[in-house]
Amino acid sequence: MFLTCSATLRLTPAEIAAGILDLDNWPTFTGYGPLPGIRSAAFEAPLPANHESEPSSVVGTRIRVANTDGSRHTEEILAWDPEREIRIRLGGFTKPLRWFASHFEETWHITPKADGTTAVERVFELHPLGWWGVPMLWFVRPLMKRAVLRHMESIGRA
C-alpha cells in the first residue's frame, strides 16, 4: 500500500538533508487527528564526523523516536543521496501500530530546480503485519497523508 505527497520547497537539497539530520526539527511532524506527532528523536549513535564530506556514511544511522501519544518507533537511513533520494525505514513500532504494521519505507525523491527551489516527492510504502493489518492501514493512510502534507508545509515555511 502506497502513499505519495509532493511539494516544491524554497530550500536546496543540502538544506533539506541538513533539516532531516537536525533532530530538533522532528517535532514539526505534528500528526493529524488520532495519528500522533513526534515528541522527540535521538540518534542511537552519534553521526560520523565525516557525514558532510562522506554522505554515504549516514547510511545505517538509526534514530529512536518518541511520539506524542507515548508510542515509539525507530527510523533507519537506508539510502542517502541528498541531490536525488533519501530512503528511511520506519519500524520497531510499539502499540498500537505494532499490532497491524511490520514497517514503513519512506523515500524522498529530490529534484533541484533552476529557480533555486526543490521539488520533493515523499513516497511511503506501508507494510501490514498480516491480512488484518490491511484495513487498519487503509484507515491510517489518509491521516498520514494529511500529516505529511502538513509537515511539508512546515518545512517550506522554515
List the topology elements.
Layout: E1 2-9, H1 13-21, E2 38-43, E3 62-67, E4 72-81, E5 85-91, E6 101-112, E7 118-128, H2 133-157
Antiparallel strand pairs: 1-7, 2-3, 3-4, 4-5, 5-6, 6-7
Describe the structure.
The structure is a single chain. With 158 residues, the chain is α+β, with helices and mostly antiparallel strands. It has a single domain (2-46, 56-157), classed as Alpha-D-Glucose-1,6-Bisphosphate, Chain A, domain 4. The protein has two helices and seven strands; from the N terminus they run E-H-E-E-E-E-E-E-H. It has a seven-stranded antiparallel beta sheet, with helices on one face. The longest helix has 25 residues, at 133-157.
Query: For the CA atoms, what is the radius of gyration?
Result: 15 Å
Can you tell me the residue ranges where pLDDT is under 50 for at least 5 consecutive residues? Answer: none
- Spell the H/E element sequence: EHEEEEEEH
Main sheet: strand order: 1-7-6-5-4-3-2
> How would you state the average pLDDT, rounded?
95
What fraction of the residues are assigned to beta strands by DSSP? 35-45%
The number of helices is 2
How many individual β-strands? Answer: 7
What is the 3D form? globular
Percent of residues in helices: 10-25%
For the largest beta-sheet, the strand count, sense and barrel status come to:
7 strands, antiparallel
CATH superfamily: START domain
Structural class: alpha+beta
Tell me the number of structural domains. Answer: 1
Under CATH, the topology can be stated as: Alpha-D-Glucose-1,6-Bisphosphate, Chain A, domain 4
Which architecture per CATH? 2-Layer Sandwich
End-to-end CA span? 30 Å
Specify the CATH class.
Answer: Alpha Beta
